[in-house]
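User: Second chain of the day. Same drill as before.
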Amino acid sequence: NAWIGTYDRGFVIAGKQSDYFNEDKNLSTPLEKKFVTRVIEDNHRNLWIATRYDGLYRYLPSGILDKIDLSSVQPSGGDYLEGVFVDSQERLWLAFEGRLCLATAIGHKAVGIASFPLDHVRCIKEDDAHTIWIGAWSGIYSYDKTTINPQRLDRTDIVNISDILPLKDGRILFSAYAWD
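Assistant: Same format as last time:
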């Protein structure tokens, strides 16, 4: 199934293509009129749904929608949630407006592991070597088991990264809105 998150209408079905879109009311009704910023699926087939003003939700294959308590990881000042990613170690990467948080989900609560001062993270991906690639307004960052903090790539002219595609040969493709 394909899910489309919108700025103000939760999930939408384009046209009447219900063959391609899941019309599950357990999911679509509670998220109606929410600003959905990111939808991803983890290895257990859970959907993780980031909403800008209403936090994080996890939709289980059984049809249960859980709201995840972000109080221990959300930066003070009410930064909104821009994105979520679940890596191969089942850690949550939560991109707030002014901070990237690494957490684990315990029940209905996100418990912080680390926090990084990266603002406006637009995408988070993982390659086959388990390196985490982070695209942000300030450039491209990598994070692996040998680093304490995400490391910015040396190219200082690459900014506002909108997406990253790790390739099988270890290289990455990326898109950027602007070059400095």
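The chain has a mean pLDDT of 83.

User: Great, on to the next one.
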